[in-house]
Amino acid sequence: MATRRNQEQVSKWRSEVIEGMISVEWYMNAVICQHYFNRVDRSFWLDVLYNEQFSFGLRRSIVERIPGKDWQDLRRMGTIRNLFAHCDIELIDIRGGVLGQPRMPDPRKPEKDVDFAALFADFKEKRGPVEQELLNLYRKLGGKFTFRDRLTGREEKGGA
Prior knowledge:
Blueprint: H1 4-37, H2 42-49, H3 56-64, H4 72-86, E1 91-95, E2 98-103, H5 116-140, E3 145-148, E4 155-158
Antiparallel strand pairs: 1-2, 3-4
Helix pairs in contact: 1-3, 1-4, 1-5, 4-5
């Protein structure tokens, strides 16, 4: 049975996964702009890529069409994000009319529970390398970027 402490931990993991996917989608947006416009187009970014109907799946599909990389880890990260976003920590298990322990069945394998700890570990393992691959692709497409130091306000140019 899930405890309040477990629920709080899963909630923290959920936040980190969703925040992490915001970062990953930012890199995907940069790649998409660079691929189609050879620059980051602010209007396209705000009007199209930030539209609430423009899904992660559509972004992923576009990025996957750019030759050079198998994006299996990116697909897995999307699945993990969806499990955290759409699966509650527990449901009351009813089998054969008998009330069982609260649990969160895996949507693909209902006889098993969702293992949020394993999903979170998998996400953390994949995030850095996937972001780096997206950044590498952005650079390969000719993209350049500028970092602004939040403390000093100084800019440092980066690129290919």
